[in-house]
């Protein structure tokens, strides 16, 4: 098994992608380390954050209860985004290696995934700072192993469920409805699920035999994932991502043929002056938006606007010229018969990643303003689920070319009346929602409603992108004609 890990490391280190894109890989590594450090800081100061938001006496009990919702959201995020590691299986078939060992490899390697590392960075600092001094080593050790077993079990369960229901949108909608019911039951004071979960986990931690229950769940979930992969892998299955790999050894391989278009998009941003300067100016808007929070903390509509300003600080400058970035080579893209669905999907992916980066950069500000704990996640969901689709939709009606070598400042090249029209639906929809909440006198739930709309947009992502692709197919000749008229 160790040789398989070593072979994959050699393949990654020797790949052409690593040698040609060292800067991009280093940049992604820095961003990943930054994300992990943010979770470490949140975990270390979790007891103080809980005391400031919920003035309770037992922060450990409350933190353990909140882990229930972390696990639920963690499972949903894994189901939507996590891809299991791949392995080139053909070269090993002629060697005396058992097929079971090849199946175990991607499952074991998934334990080193980002979501598991985030859980470790969140729980271990809290364990060291708060749990051990309060409950002692024996209780704390069982508590830690129980929580980590639940996090890793979520990893294996998400894989199993995704294998069986990834192509069924009914399951996704049902899970979103289930999540809404759980939140309503708990926070609507119908039944306190978080306190019950905390009581069970603390009870297990207080017994010397308690650690066997989460370990049993971990073992069962692992072998369920193993059995699922064993029963479903096929060497000639083009859609099977678990036992094959595309060219190169990079995280982009997991997105199939979309990876090539996405890589071109990232290189366009890194190598050209205008997209880099646009993102730099957007980056400066994040601390500016944070300063605006100090002026008014009670107006929900203003909070929504400031949250949108921060979360979309990087995504909107990119989305403003979403198709115009390729104005100089748009005819070449069409002549090469590029799959427009993958082309639009890569645009959506870049837009979403930039929004997530803005959200991550705003995480340290939570220490100064607790309202960001609800505002920014809701705005992130809305930006990815709704704003991204509106940007792509209106981008189909823009046909003004731009020069990538010019600076962004005081440069109005490519700007059209459509850029001003985009603001109306992007900010108008939340404003209408807020007006409806005002009528029913429930403005306190406005941010949650905005987040639910964003989740619905994410669930309907494939349908909405398909409509945009059809619109782009109808408009591509007019767009190309506009790009040629410089």
Q: Could you explain the architecture of this structure?
A:
The structure is a single chain. The chain has 486 residues and is mainly alpha-helical. The chain has 2 domains: 249 residues, no CATH class; 228 residues, no CATH class. The protein is 72% helix and 0% strand. It contains 21 helices and no strands. Helix 17 runs antiparallel to helix 18. The longest helix has 29 residues. About 5% of the residues have low confidence. InterPro entries: DUF5687.
What descriptors fit this protein?
mainly alpha; 21 helices; 72% helix; globular; DUF5687; transmembrane
Question: How would the blueprint of this fold be written?
Answer:
Blueprint: H1 2-14, H2 16-20, H3 22-44, H4 46-53, H5 59-81, H6 99-109, H7 114-135, H8 137-165, H9 169-187, H10 193-205, H11 212-232, H12 258-271, H13 273-292, H14 300-311, H15 315-320, H16 330-335, H17 340-361, H18 372-395, H19 417-439, H20 446-459, H21 461-484
Organism: Natronoflexus pectinivorans
Transmembrane segments: 21-45, 60-81, 102-128, 134-158, 170-188, 208-226, 278-295, 301-325, 346-367, 379-397, 417-440, 446-469
Pfam family, one: DUF5687
